[in-house]
Write a structure and sequence with these properties.
By secondary structure, this protein is mainly alpha-helical. The protein has one domain. A three-stranded mixed β-sheet has the order 3-5-4. A two-stranded antiparallel sheet has the order 1-2.
Amino acid sequence: MQKSLSRFAWVLALSLPAFLGFNGCATVPITGRKQLNFFSPGQEMQLGLSSFEQMKKEVPVSRDAAAIALVQKVGKRIAAAAANDLPDAQWEFVVFESKEANAFCLPGGKIGVYTGILPITKDEAGLATVLGHEVAHASAHHGAERMSEALLRELGGQVLGMSLAKSDPKTQAAMSMVYGLGTQLGVALPHSRQNESEADAMGLIYMARAGYNPEAAVAFWERFAAATGGSDHGLWFLRTHPVTTDRIRHIKELLPRAKAEFRPQAR
């Protein structure tokens, strides 16, 4: 067991420089953060398109003309505000029939909004908070980043498997479990939370540039917490999203920068 642990340490030590080298291959707009991204814009577009088309086959698309018009209107304004950060995006905003209070983004600019979140958005500014956040995921290439990290973790798992090939089955199982848990808690979940916080920060800028008062984001998240019962229960370190109270506090800290870019526009 000691030899296997030693071998495992060497594997991690040898893999770390490679990981750090790859980690600076792209830069996120607005925040300037360095990120891992193995995918070209064309690959992102294709992955997002195919997944979105499949989604539209599996989940009912809303026929509510008023809801569709509102999402399209706000979505186009937010997308225009982010145009320089993702110039090749093929933006598409679709409303799906679901009681779930949620929205999502797929690579390349494919945005889905569930009808369950619309009452919580309340108005255009509330919806701009949601769509600004989702558009930010696209322009920050968070989907490609998560897929790239998954590929790197898979590579690490294969390297570990080869290094433990001659170990006894119990040792292999134990070390595989340690590796899986370590990458999930130490890499995947923190990076997911980082992506969410980053999308909040970028989303505020986009909604401000689109002419929506970023202060509306605080009110939206307060309504969201009230409507969903908050998200402050359970194990924080196992969440991929920041808890609501932390999110609101973070957004308040970001408001001065976003408000500096706010220019009211005629609706």
